[in-house]
């Protein structure tokens, strides 16, 4: 049996630089699933959130990346695009910030899959008909191609009202397009500077 010196790990971990743990941690893993929309098996990413102080399981999010998604309901102006879908988002207590942390986590995951912030989901009243998720997603920056529904959601948010009779709605995070002058502004300035020097 090898006996370890309790001080030997200090050269690998400097306790003075160790910061406080975050209040929540997310544990992620891949799992097999069945995609009914295309009638085949697929791999999804499952993310489970835990409180670090209590170890309590507080919610779960399931995501699935797509390489080429074509839909007139998701990024209609782009045609085929890479995108990350939030298949399911479930938190056991509301108004604790868990949902917002999951959305931010999904935005980062979208970039990891080179989806350029393309993130979409289906807002539904399935889990909670009294308080459908549409308003929460709208507050997080999601939109839909249904302009009338977007206005209704904005009105509910402004007046702090409930959404009644909510139907399923595909929502996505709009991606800001860079203007050509913003995209190439640095090179234009460099060219002007070089032309003055030469």
Structure summary:
Helices cover 26% and strands 29% of the residues.
Walk me through the structure:
The chain has a single domain, classed as Gcn5-related N-acetyltransferase (GNAT) (Aminopeptidase). The chain is built from five helices and six strands, in the order E-E-E-E-H-E-H-H-E-H-H. The chain has helices at 98-112, 134-139, 147-159, 180-183, 185-197; strands at 24-35, 40-51, 57-69, 81-91, 119-123, 169-172. It is globular. Helix content is 26%, strand content 29%. It is of the alpha+beta class. The termini are far apart.
Topology, please?
Layout: E1 24-35, E2 40-51, E3 57-69, E4 81-91, H1 98-112, E5 119-123, H2 134-139, H3 147-159, E6 169-172, H4 180-183, H5 185-197
Parallel strand pairs: 4-5
Antiparallel strand pairs: 1-2, 2-3, 3-4, 5-6
Write out key terms for the chains shown.
single chain, 198 residues, alpha+beta, Aminopeptidase, six-stranded mixed beta sheet, 5 helices, 26% helix, 29% strand
> Strands of the biggest beta sheet: in what spatial order?
1-2-3-4-5-6
In percent terms, what proportion of residues is strand? 25-35%
Shape: globular
Task: Please describe the biggest sheet, giving its number of strands, its sense, and whether it closes into a barrel.
Answer: 6 strands, mixed
Structural class designation: alpha+beta
Distance between the termini: 74 Å
Give the averaged pLDDT, no decimals.
Answer: 83
Give me the count of strands. Answer: 6
Secondary-structure element string: EEEEHEHHEHH
Give the class-level CATH name: Alpha Beta
Radius of gyration: 22 Å
Number of domains: 1
Relevant CATH superfamily:
Gcn5-related N-acetyltransferase (GNAT)
Q: How helical, in percent, are the residues?
A: 25-40%
- The unreliable regions are none
Instruction: Return the CATH architecture.
Output: 3-Layer(aba) Sandwich
The count of helical stretches stands at 5
Could you say what the CATH topology is called? Aminopeptidase
């Amino acid at each position: 049996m090898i006996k370890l010196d309790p001080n030997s790990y200090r050269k690998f971990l400097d306790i003075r630089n160790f910061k406080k743990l975050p209040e929540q941690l997310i544990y992620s893993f891949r799992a097999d699933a069945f995609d009914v929309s295309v009638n085949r098996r697929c791999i999804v990413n499952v993310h489970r959130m835990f409180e670090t102080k209590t170890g309590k399981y507080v919610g779960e999010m399931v995501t699935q990346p797509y390489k080429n998604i074509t839909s007139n309901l998701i990024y209609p102006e782009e045609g085929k695009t890479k995108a990350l879908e939030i298949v399911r988002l479930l938190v056991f207590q509301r108004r604790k910030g868990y949902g917002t942390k999951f959305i931010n986590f999904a935005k980062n995951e979208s970039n990891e899959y080179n989806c350029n912030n393309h993130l979409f989901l289906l807002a539904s009243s399935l889990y909670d008909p009294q308080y459908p998720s549409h308003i929460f997603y709208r507050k997080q920056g999601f939109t839909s191609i249904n302009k009338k529904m977007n206005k209704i959601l904005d009105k509910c948010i402004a007046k702090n009202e409930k959404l009644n009779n909510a139907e399923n709605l595909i929502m996505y995070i709009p991606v800001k397009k860079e203007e050509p002058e913003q995209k190439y502004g640095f090179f234009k300035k460099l060219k002007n500077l070089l032309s003055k020097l030469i």
